[in-house]
């Protein structure tokens, strides 16, 4: 669609590279009027009701319940759910159901990631985003109807429990156990989970547990929905460098009784479910990292125009302009790659789980983390001492320098994902060769 045919224009629109190209001056084949409408709608909401309070909430370590309820009322908790799981509600900005595609979800990721602090954004429900797809994709219809409408309305919250003190990257080595009771009606869960986002407030955890006493490694793992109010559960917050308002939590299970009907999918087949659940999370993290890199660019760019040294603005020095060139190149190329992958998934909705796309999402997530690290470092350098200070014009970039590490490590760490990306392409090449 030609820009002149659009009857809505995108809000914002700063200097090149401070916004996505399609929202600025360049044409894009991927975005329609509904994307612009959603972007304007969410931006207006976030700029008036979330971003002004983000610093306060991050310092407090919590998003107020009322703000969470507003977020839910606006339809931003699991926004893309089918209508029957949304209590019949319209999609955000009244986007017609048939027009919603993955670019709309990407816009929500990007717009929320414009926050000067990521903690409150994660506090507003990112754990629902990474845990509930397991219910949608592997749960029974009864389980979906039992939980998803209440998550969407903000009544209940979920978190995802994969990582344990002894098992992070190597999910197949988890030790938490779920043993079936002698009458076969319950699982008895013992073990622990670490760094669980939103775990301190969540009502339920979708947890990976070992259900087989004989099978080892990836075999014998299941996914279980565990109510976090159950007797035998203790929770304590974990203090991290950043994302304070995300509610990072250590959870201990001690003889926790969980009804058998809370099993998600087939018993002992949970490892594959955990792995497939990672693909949408990696896209979300990549989109978020690239937006945060753009924020670094924008903040530093403004400073380089304002700050004068040796009688001229920083931006007038060639070595400074080279920094912006480097950042812009990295952000724009990774973003174009991401859009291409999203476009492919929009055209082939089941492809998100194929090796071809999984490999690219793994590598994209690594690349986006590297782009963010690079841009944050360069932006801090442009700010000089101000980039190290929690107050003043460099404070957004300083905060990002503390928030960014979890985007590089969480959802699959760099070393693991690089290797996964290439291993997947090798297996594809081998299977093609054997045809
Ligand atoms: C703020 C925060 C929020 C999180 N939220 C959640 C959540 O909601 N739910 C959840 O389940 N988890 C969560 N996590 C955990 C996160 O997913 C793990 O930290 C991540 O998977 C890495 O595991 P690990 O920290 O145990 O690192 P390890 O597995 O101990 O790895 C340490 C380092 O070594 C590298 N490495 C490991 N093995 C190899 C190898 N064979 N070859 C080369 N390099 C290797 C890794 O890439 C990593 O850099 C969160 C973490 C943080 C910090």
Helix content: 40-55%
**Strand order of the biggest β-sheet:** 1-4-5-8
Q: Do you know the CATH architecture of the largest domain?
A: Up-down Bundle
Poorly predicted tracts of residues: 1-7
Cα shape: globular
**CATH class call of the largest domain:** Mainly Alpha
How large is the radius of gyration? Answer: 22 Å
Largest sheet: 4 strands, mixed
CATH topology of the largest domain: Butyryl-CoA Dehydrogenase, subunit A, domain 3
Q: What's the number of structural domains?
A: 3
* Cofactors, ions and other ligands in the entry: flavin-adenine dinucleotide
Order of helices and strands: HHHHHHHEEEEEEEEHEEHHHHH
State the end-to-end distance: 41 Å
Number of helices: 13
Tally of strands: 10
Structural class: alpha+beta
Instruction: Report the CATH superfamily of the largest domain.
Output: Butyryl-CoA Dehydrogenase, subunit A, domain 3
Q: What amount of the residues lies in strands?
A: 5-15%
Report mean pLDDT, rounded to a whole number.
94
Commentary on this structure:
The chain has 3 domains: about 5-125, Butyryl-Coa Dehydrogenase, subunit A, domain 1; about 160-270, Butyryl-CoA Dehydrogenase, subunit A, domain 2; about 270-435, Butyryl-CoA Dehydrogenase, subunit A, domain 3 (Up-down Bundle). It is an alpha+beta fold. The chain has helices at about 35-50, 50-60, 65-75, 100-110, 120-125, 125-140, 140-150, 270-305, 320-345, 355-385, 395-405, 405-410, 415-435; strands at about 160, 175-180, 185-195, 205-210, 220-225, 235, 250-260, 265, 310, 310-315. Strands 1-4-5-8 form a 4-stranded mixed beta sheet. It has a 4-stranded antiparallel beta sheet with strand order 2-3-7-6, with no helix packed on it. The site of flavin-adenine dinucleotide has 21 residues, from β1, β3, α12 and α13.
């Amino acid at each position: 669609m030609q820009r002149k045919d659009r009857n809505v224009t995108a809000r914002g629109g700063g200097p090149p590279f401070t916004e996505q190209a399609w929202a600025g001056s360049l044409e894009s084949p991927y975005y329609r009027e509904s994307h612009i409408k959603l972007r304007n709608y969410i931006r207006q909401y976030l700029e008036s009701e979330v971003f002004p309070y983000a610093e306060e909430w991050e310092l407090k370590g919590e998003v107020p319940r009322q703000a969470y309820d507003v977020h839910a009322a606006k339809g931003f908790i699991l926004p893309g759910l089918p209508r029957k799981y949304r209590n019949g509600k319209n999609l955000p900005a009244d986007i017609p159901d048939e027009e919603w595609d993955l670019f709309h979800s990407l816009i929500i990721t990007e717009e929320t990631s414009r926050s000067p602090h990521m903690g409150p954004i994660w506090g507003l429900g990112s754990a629902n985003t990474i845990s509930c797809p397991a219910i949608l994709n592997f749960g029974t219809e009864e389980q979906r109807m039992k939980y998803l409408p209440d998550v969407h309305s903000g009544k209940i919250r979920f978190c995802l429990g994969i990582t344990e003190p002894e098992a992070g990257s190597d999910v197949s080595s988890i030790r938490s156990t779920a043993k079936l009771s002698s009458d076969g009606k319950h699982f008895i869960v013992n073990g622990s989970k670490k760094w669980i986002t939103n775990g301190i407030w969540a009502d339920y955890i979708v947890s990976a547990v070992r259900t087989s006493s004989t099978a080892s490694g990836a075999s014998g793992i299941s996914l279980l929905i565990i109510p976090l109010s159950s007797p035998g559960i203790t929770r304590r917050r974990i203090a991290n460098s950043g994302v304070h308002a995300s509610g990072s939590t250590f959870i201990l299970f001690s003889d926790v009784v969980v009804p058998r009907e809370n099993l998600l999918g087939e018993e002992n087949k949970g490892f594959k479910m955990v792995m497939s659940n990672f693909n949408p999370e990696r896209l979300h993290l990549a989109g978020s990292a690239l937006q945060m890199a753009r924020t670094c660019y924008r903040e530093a760019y403004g400073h380089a125009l304002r700050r004068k040294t040796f009688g001229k603005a920083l931006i007038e020095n060639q070595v400074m302009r080279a920094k912006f060139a480097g950042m812009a190149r990295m952000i724009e190329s990774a973003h174009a790659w991401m859009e291409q992958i999203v476009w492919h998934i929009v055209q082939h909705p089941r492809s998100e789980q194929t090796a071809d796309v999984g490999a690219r999402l793994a590598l994209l997530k690594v690349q986006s983390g590297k782009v963010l690290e690079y841009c944050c470092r360069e932006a801090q350098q442009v700010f000089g001492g101000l980039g190290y200070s929690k107050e003043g014009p460099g404070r957004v970039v300083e905060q990002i320098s503390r928030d960014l590490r979890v985007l590089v490590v969480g959802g699959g760490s760099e070393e693991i994902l690089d290797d996964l990306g290439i291993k997947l392409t090798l297996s594809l090449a081998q299977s093609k060769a054997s045809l």
